[in-house]
Amino acid sequence: MSAHDPAELAAARPDFAAIAAWIPQGASVLDLGCGDGSLLRYLKDTRKVRGYGVEISDENIVACIQNGINVIQGDLDSGLYGFETGSFDFVILSQTLQAIRHTEALVKEILRIGREGIVSFPNFGYWKNRLNILHGYMPVSEELPYQWYDTPNVHLCTLYDFEKFCSSHRVHILERRVMTGGSEVSVLPNVLGSMAVYRFKRAA
Amino acid sequence: MESSVGAVSAQTARFDTPFSFQSGAVLPRFDLVYETYGTLNADKSNAILVCHALSGHHHVAGYYADDPKNIGWWDSMIGPGKPVDTDKFFVVGVNNLGGCHGSTGPSSINPQTGKPYGASFPVVTVEDWVGSQARLADRLDIKQFAAVMGGSLGGMQALQWSLSYPERVRHVLAIACAPHLTAENIAFNDVARNAILTDPDFHGGNFYEHNVVPKRGLRLARMLGHITYLSDNAMADKFGRSLRSGKLGYNYDIEFEIESYLRYQGDKFAAYFDANTYLLMTKALDYFDPARAFDDNLDKAFASAHADFLVLSFTTDWRFSPERSRAIVQALLHNRLNVSYGEITSTHGHDSFLMQHEHYHEVMRTYLERIAGGFSA
């Protein structure tokens, strides 16, 4: 199977399938912090989206071009000047929220540029993380693979934190999916879910 | 393995039907000198046009059998196994109209007078160049280029291709370029032009018949230009405050290494470049402004484009800064065109686009491999 085989990717990144399920065929998508471009590639293959990614790292720029997607090199923390208001159906922030410095400004930009926003992030309230803290250490896991001293993550949050943020920042949550290891979590999501994906829009 | 395209030779395409310039001037006939590398495939879908910048020409890659040290100006980029892989692509390099490397220009003989055109050669615009390059494409039976690419003024031509002939270019690679010059940029060009225009040996552009060359003006123009193509840091790294003799001389001879370098570059350039061509090239730069016809709205200017774009800038390029490239990217985004943009970290200023730089070449190689994936060689 090729490096960007849709089935293989969906298995490796359960949030991809969750995100794709919300995106209709042919939608326009802006993926902020698009990494190597595999999500956009996946959405291009499975949803025929017209997509652009924004990415900062040199290595990922090359990977995105290799993946055949449009990528704009830029820093999410210095503003999304070039994107017009309402110019995308969806603006996605996949596993990037926790690494953003100016979170409020970026969420505002997502709501400006996109008709809807989609955000996925590791749930810091996941029980294994709580257990790590209880034992006296910062959590290190598949979703949070960094040591405290080399992590790019500056704004980790729990599901409750994010939802509280949304209600105080005029963000209207449309849908939420919580997962652990690829399976849906419905009971005690803020404890049993390792990762969450939200779909939202600007509150009326 | 990377290697050279080897020994190459220039060819001349003669055009005997008139060419109308944007200014309204007409040339009854003209020549374009060009080189090609690689092989045009059966369906003629693998051609890449390389547009040159201010002082460039058609000798883009390889060397001449009788002059092996004369290596093409973008040889690091183009050749077998190089980012522009001549095992896959058919590459065309052309000397622009108004040039001084064999294509019809101010130093060519005007058949109507039997004397060099000199000051009477029409002012050429980027649009004119692209129009004449399209005539060459017709001659080579290339209906559509897989890509048109260039850096600086060459990048402007690549952009213009997507506007003048949207159906004739699939990819535009615009490197270290801008949607138009800033006032500061025009100012630099005007100082360079003034150096030439006020040289007593310029003779209003008709210096050929006086058997002189306005070398002092050309030299100054080049020295000034050269400063703006480098970065403060690159100059500091390369020359610092080093003195040639190790001590101060208390006179106006060459003392600092940077002075020596600039004078050498100026002299070298003045020995071969045509002053009228220099004037024309800077004017083409100043005039380029596709938004001008659309109420200065660059988005509208690109509304007719269909190509996919790769736009690259260099962090220390202050003559064509990343901000200028981002303005191009914005206009392309607003038109929902396919575009990728890279901001290459480099210390070498505007000249970076000509340098061997691992990441820059990797981006180019990857993008061009993607293009090559779209056709069978």
Structure description:
- The complex is a heterodimer of chains A (204) and B (377).
- Chain A has helices at residues 6-12, 14-22, 38-47, 58-66, 103-113, 127-134, 159-168, 189-192; strands at 28-32, 50-55, 70-73, 88-94, 114-122, 171-180, 183-184, 195-202.
- With 204 residues, chain A is of the alpha/beta class.
- In chain A, strands 3-2-1-4-5-8-6-7 form an 8-stranded mixed sheet, sandwiched between helices.
- In chain A, helix 4 (58-66) links the parallel strand 2 (50-55) and strand 3 (70-73).
- In chain A, helix 1 packs across helix 2 (14-22).
- Chain A starts with 5 loop residues before the first helix and ends with a strand.
- The model of chain A has no long low-confidence stretch (mean pLDDT 93).
- By secondary structure, chain B is an alpha/beta fold.
- Chain B contains 10 helices and 14 strands.
- In chain B, the strands form 4 sheets. Chain B has an 8-stranded mixed sheet, with helices on both faces. A two-stranded antiparallel ribbon of chain B has the order 2-3.
- The longest helix of chain B has 16 residues, at 257-272.
- The two termini of chain B are 19 Å apart.
- The A-B interface holds A 28, 50, 52, 58, 61-62, 64-66, 68, 70-74, 81-84, 87 and B 310, 326, 329-330, 333-334, 336, 338-343, 345, 359, 362-363, 366-367, 369-370.
Oligomer: heterodimer
Please work out how many helical segments of chain B DSSP would assign: 10
Largest sheet of chain B: 8 strands, mixed
Largest sheet properties of chain A: 8 strands, mixed
Order of strands across the main sheet of chain A = 3-2-1-4-5-8-6-7
Keywords:
heterodimer, A: about 200 residues, alpha/beta, eight-stranded mixed beta sheet, 8 helices, about 35% helix, B: about 375 residues
Write the layout of secondary structure elements.
The complex is a heterodimer of chains A (204) and B (377).
Chain A: H1 6-12, H2 14-22, E1 28-32, H3 38-47, E2 50-55, H4 58-66, E3 70-73, E4 88-94, H5 103-113, E5 114-122, H6 127-134, H7 159-168, E6 171-180, E7 183-184, H8 189-192, E8 195-202
Parallel strand pairs in A: 1-2, 1-4, 2-3, 4-5
Antiparallel strand pairs in A: 5-8, 6-7, 6-8
Helix pairs in contact in A: 1-2
Chain B: E1 11-15, E2 19-20, E3 26-27, E4 30-37, E5 47-51, E6 78-79, E7 84-85, E8 90-94, E9 109-110, E10 115-116, H1 126-139, E11 145-151, H2 153-164, E12 169-175, H3 183-197, H4 215-229, H5 232-238, H6 257-272, H7 275-287, H8 298-301, E13 308-314, H9 322-334, E14 339-344, H10 358-372
Parallel strand pairs in B: 5-8, 5-11, 6-7, 11-12, 12-13, 13-14
Antiparallel strand pairs in B: 1-4, 2-3, 4-8, 9-10
Helix pairs in contact in B: 1-2, 3-4, 3-7, 4-6
